[in-house]
Specification:
The chain is of the alpha/beta class. The protein is built from eleven helices and eleven strands. About 45% of the residues lie in helices and about 25% in strands. Belongs to the LysR transcriptional regulatory family.
């Protein structure tokens, strides 16, 4: 018999690549999560996770178990959903900011689609302000996006610091004019970094403007300039530029904004999963093991 509690700890560690972050998400002690994984390994007589001081990664047996763990836990969620008072169903128009969609959302969306096959999920990806405008026109049921600290629209999920990033910070900082890699207007990140540079009197020029995070990341990895992102969403291959070389940036909040006409059961089910997965932070490349 496979224990679902142990499987949940195993799956969360596999997703987070971190025992520390997995414990936070599960609201358990790190030692408890470790014990769950150890008991699962003992029951299966297989090593599932390789852990050292720098990383956590699945063994071949762990990779083989992963899809079965997902399936078993999905069946558990579906059984629970069967007895919910209101079952999510119908069209669900979801808007997600560009920052989140490639690295943070796939697993969440996969689980939600598997759990609620009666929901017709329609995904829109854009900048936060653009998503807000779409929602105001009645085109979206729920938006997950960024807002400025102090803004009131939406319910906060978590707060994140913005940081300056570059593939080679020393080389970029040696340039007489700071080269910027930015989203186009009306990007909130762009507004905040421009305001910080203006306050500090830093000379700057835009060397790359692109609506896609993958395009911006490619330019930054090529050494074209500096990119600003929330710290735990920093793309691999880029290094944070330490203070005081560049001005301090404001934090941002990631929020959920619900339309008045949205199906409450569907929005509630999705929002609950967002808070369970991201309420303690996003998965970042540099998380502690």
């Amino acid at each position: 018999m496979l224990d679902l509690v142990q499987l949940r700890s195993f799956l969360t560690v596999a997703q987070a690549r971190s025992f520390t972050l997995a414990a936070e998400r599960l609201q358990l002690g790190q030692s408890t999560v470790s014990q769950h994984v150890q008991r699962l390994e003992r029951d299966l007589r297989r090593r599932l996770i390789h852990r050292d001081t720098h990383s956590v990664r699945l063994t071949p047996d762990g990779e083989a178990l992963l899809p079965h763990a997902r399936q078993l836990l999905a069946l558990e969620r579906q059984a629970i959903a069967q007895f919910e008072t209101e079952t999510p169903r119908g069209t669900f128009r979801l808007g997600v900011s560009e920052d989140l969609v490639s690295a943070q959302l796939p697993g969440l969306l996969e689980d939600f689609i598997a759990d609620y096959p009666s929901v017709d999920l329609q995904l829109s990806v854009a900048l936060s302000r653009t998503l807000g405008e779409m929602q105001d026109r009645g085109e979206l049921d729920l938006v997950m996006a960024k807002r400025r600290i102090g803004d009131k629209r939406g319910d906060s999920v978590l707060r994140e610091p913005l940081v300056w990033l570059a593939s080679d910070p020393e080389a970029v900082l040696a340039k007489p004019v700071l080269p910027l890699i930015v989203f186009p207007p009306p990007s909130l990140t762009r507004v905040l970094l421009m305001e910080a540079l203006e306050r500090s009197g830093t000379a700057w020029r835009i060397v790359c403007s692109c609506p896609s995070l993958s395009g911006l990341t490619a330019a930054a990895r090529a050494g074209m300039g500096v990119l600003v992102q929330p710290r735990s969403l920093a793309p691999a291959g880029l290094r944070e530029i330490a203070q005081p070389h560049l001005p301090v940036l404001e934090d941002v909040e990631f929020v959920l904004v619900t339309s008045a006409s949205a199906n409450r059961a569907t929005v509630s089910a999705f929002s609950r999963r967002v808070r369970e997965r991201f309420g303690k932070g996003f998965v970042s490349v540099g998380n502690a093991v």
